[in-house]
Design brief:
about 550 residues; alpha+beta; Formiminotransferase-cyclodeaminase, Chain B, domain 1; 3 domains; 13 strands
Length: about 550
């Protein structure tokens, strides 16, 4: 499935009823899911985030722009944030299985519809820009709404779609549409009310920097280039746009940032650099806030960054890493930061069927013991592997914090991260084994009246059966590989926890042997001798290696007890 995210920013952040009427358009659109609505009173702007398959997203975005143009009168709009239209910007962001080039084509389709059907001037920017001069949003939006009348009379600023006329644009303004990388809107809070000082810090760090002056002082003469143009002294952070402003509802100044490529400048790097720049100006950072949603990896990267600064193990659970990120960045200073509502992957999973791994231990046991054939031995084998990897990871984390071993924290952190990776993959396979069983059942329920239906049904059964073989085989491989962490921990880990790693090895061996039973029983129903012979041979080799490794680990464990 191809997925794109759409993040329209509308020029209304105060009237809750207007905002709801606009977001209701998304709620009622088929094939898309509204993820976040983030209004700002001071900016008088709301950031809306929704996701779906491309065509559904384009239809929903068109309806939103139409509704916003009907409800928002730009001639009456005021706010702190730069803007030029009722729907000021409407970026499309590739999320899954779609390239930036394809996303740009969808942006062009949307722009054409908005310009031709709604008579709203449309400008393309970033990866949807038709000319290099229009790639930068700040350039496209220069003059803002107040300068739009003159802009539309300038041939150099003819819109990419829609009329170059101000009559209707008097109320709707213009809309900028793009295809872009995932942008993180991020504000950093300061212990000052001075917009001027906040701006100075913003100019220190943003990529564009500030106008260059002789002597490097604000009162110095502006340095010109050979053509007589102002020159600029770049800031310290690449792919960062920033300004300073005062937010009345919070009573503090902020550095408002757009991180346009978090693989170049991450959230935590931006935070630390602003802390440094602010400190040099006698100002302290007190916290920060994310506007809209953030990718999971960005939060994990931040959490691990701060853990490493503390010389702490990064091989801890995902939820703990995120907790460290929230506290370190001060994301909960202005209000609660709820990961399930702010991290895009968590939002996408919301409302999905409850997984086996989401059950309590008692619920999982009761479900297994019920008359339902799933979860069965395959899921239990995977979960035995989860326990084995978890025990090994626990020993690695205990070792990284052991008194007197401070200089070895990175060594054990590496092992803990490996253990977490094995554990997370095996957790996924707990539910995937049950899903593979369900796929077989669904294949057998397919109609078989006509000859064509019989052929299709047989093909589906074969594919589902192979999948039901490959999932427990993957459990075997992963559980066996995870034993490297158990072995390392009984050899070099905290001696007080050697038996924990030993028990983990027993669990991993059980996972391998149990999963192999499922491989073999599913192979029995498959009429493909070459495939069956190959996978049974490889499975037998993995099982033998796991048994031998478990015996070796047990022997080492017993020698240390």
């Amino acid at each position: 499935m191809q997925l794109i995210e759409c993040v329209p920013n509308i020029s209304e952040g105060r009237d809750a009823e207007v905002i709801k009427q606009i977001t209701d358009v998304i709620e009622l659109s088929e094939g898309v899911r509204l993820l976040d609505v983030d209004p700002g009173k001071a900016t008088n702007r709301t950031v809306i985030t929704f996701v779906g398959e491309p065509k559904a997203v384009i239809d929903a975005a068109f309806k939103l722009i139409k509704k916003a143009s009907e409800l928002i009168d730009m001639s009456k709009h005021t706010g702190e944030h730069p803007r030029m239209g009722a729907t000021d910007v409407c970026p499309l962001v590739p999320i899954a299985n779609i390239s930036m080039e394809e996303t740009a084509k969808y942006a062009h389709q949307l722009g054409a519809r908005v310009g031709e059907e709604l008579d709203i001037p449309v400008y393309f920017y970033e990866n949807a820009a038709k000319t290099e001069e229009r790639r930068n949003l700040a350039v496209v939006r220069s003059g803002e709404y107040e300068g739009l009348k003159n802009k539309l009379t300038d041939p150099n600023w003819a819109p990419d779609h829609g009329p170059a006329a101000y009559d209707k644009a008097h109320t709707t303004g213009a809309t900028a549409i793009s295809a872009r990388d995932f942008l993180v809107a991020y504000n950093i809070n300061l212990n000052t009310t001075s917009t001027r000082r906040a701006n100075a810090i913003a100019f220190d760090v943003r990529e564009k920097g500030r106008i260059a002056r002789e002597g490097g002082v604000l009162s110095g003469k502006i340095i010109k280039d050979a053509e007589g143009n102002d020159t600029w002294t770049p800031g310290t952070l690449k792919s960062v746009k920033a300004i300073g402003w005062f937010i009345e509802e919070y009573g503090v100044a902020q550095i408002s940032m757009n991180l346009t490529n978090i693989s170049i400048t991450s959230i935590h790097e931006a935070f630390d650099e602003v802390c440094r720049a602010a400190n040099e100006r006698g100002i302290r950072v007190t916290g920060s806030e994310l506007v809209g949603l953030v990718p999971l990896q960005a939060m994990l990267d931040a959490g691990k960054y701060f853990l490493r600064k503390q010389q702490r193990s990064t091989g801890i659970s995902e939820s703990e890493i995120i907790k460290i990120a929230v506290k370190s960045l001060g994301l909960d200073e202005l209000g609660p930061f709820k990961p399930e509502e702010r991290i895009i992957e968590y939002m996408l999973n919301e409302g999905n069927d409850k997984k086996l791994v989401d059950l309590t231990l008692v619920e999982f046991a009761d479900e297994t013991a019920s008359e339902s054939p799933a979860p069965g031995g395959g899921s239990i084998s995977a979960y035995a592997g989860v326990l084995g990897a978890s025990l090994a990871t626990m020993v690695a984390n205990l070792s990284s914090h052991k008194r007197g071993w401070d200089d070895r924290w990175e060594e054990f952190s590496m092992w803990a991260e490996k253990g977490q990776q094995y554990k997370n993959e095996l957790i996924r396979l707990v539910d995937e084994d049950t899903n593979s069983f369900n796929k077989i059942m669904e294949a057998f329920r397919l109609p078989k009246e006509s000859e064509e239906e019989k052929v299709a049904r047989k093909k589906a059964i074969v594919e589902a059966t192979k999948y039901a073989i490959e999932i427990p085989f993957k459990v075997m491989e992963t559980a066996y590989q995870s034993m490297e962490v158990n072995k390392a921990m009984v050899e070099i880990g905290n001696p007080n926890s050697v038996t924990d790693a030993g028990v983990g090895a027993l669990c991993a061996r059980t996972a391998v042997m149990g999963a192999f039973m499922n491989v073999k029983i599913n192979c029995k129903d498959l009429d493909d001798s070459e495939y069956v012979d190959d996978i049974l041979k490889r499975g037998a080799e993995i099982q033998l290696k796991a048994q031998e490794l478990e015996q070796e680990i047990t022997k080492i464990t017993e020698s240390k007890i």
